[in-house]
């Protein structure tokens, strides 16, 4: 038992906000969209770096 006499096995209602199935699905779709957008940006930056070649490192000081 914990310090307050509550064990981890107690089946109590979760505290805080409980999301519905629709909200969980919407959150997952939004997370996937953000991940895909981030992946596209990474690929875009990589492609630009490869196309520009070593000239990326040559710049006036």
| Number of helical elements | 1
The averaged pLDDT comes out at 84
From the alpha carbons, calculate the radius of gyration and give it in angstroms.
24 Å
Give the helix level as a range of percent. 40-55%
Give the number of DSSP strands: 0
Q: What gross morphology would you assign?
A: elongated
Beta-strand proportion: under 5%
* Unreliably modeled segments: none
The description of the largest β-sheet is:
none
Order of helices and strands: H
How would you describe the oligomerization state of the chains in this entry? Answer: single chain
SS-based class: mainly alpha
Keywords:
mainly alpha; 0% strand; 61 residues
Structure description:
Helices cover 52% and strands 0% of the residues. It has 61 residues and is mainly α. It has a domain at 21-53. The longest helix has 32 residues, at 21-52.
Give a brief description.
The chain is mainly alpha-helical. The protein is 52% helix and 0% strand.
Topology (elements, then pairings):
Blueprint: H1 21-52
């Amino acid at each position: 038992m914990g310090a307050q006499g509550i064990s981890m096995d107690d089946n109590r209602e979760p505290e805080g906000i409980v999301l519905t199935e629709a909200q969980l699905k919407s959150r997952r779709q939004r997370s996937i969209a953000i991940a895909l957008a981030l992946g596209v940006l990474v690929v875009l930056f990589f492609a630009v770096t490869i196309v520009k070649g070593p000239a990326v490192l040559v710049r006036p000081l």
